[in-house]
């Protein structure tokens, strides 16, 4: 019974800790984040099983964690308020090319983070090309480009067409 109570306590502690750490804490791991994760994992294991390294204790911990996760999933599916508390809500970071500094500061997101996501997903290079940037509950940044922003695929197609035309034209002697 002691193992089950320790497991429940650690699960809830980590849930609260990572919820307070913010959405970006788990979205993209840097080297330092990965090292911290390894240390937290070791400390968590020690707290969960204590001195008892038996197979039964390990299985009890795993079963307790899975049941806790299933239980929280059921509670979240039945209560939007609980889901919002546990998962958080999307947060608007950029609106019509204008940075919303308050939400960005609170969520520890930089303009570089937004621009990186814009480049990777849409080939956008400037904030004024972004209609909306949203920090999702998962920690990722979604970009909605402006209607008049260039589409990376369209630009690639135009470049490809121009290269084909240039290669197809006969050279003057």
Automatic annotation (TrEMBL):
InterPro entries, from UniProt? DUF421, UPF0702_alpha/beta_dom_sf
Q: Which PANTHER family match?
A: UPF0702 TRANSMEMBRANE PROTEIN YCAP
- Its recorded name reads YetF C-terminal domain-containing protein
Task: Identify its membrane topology class.
Answer: Multi-pass membrane protein
Query: Magnesium: present as a keyword of the record?
Result: no
Gene3D superfamilies registered for this protein in UniProt: bsu07140 like domains (3.30.240.20)
Task: Respond yes or no to whether keyword Transmembrane is given for this record.
Answer: yes
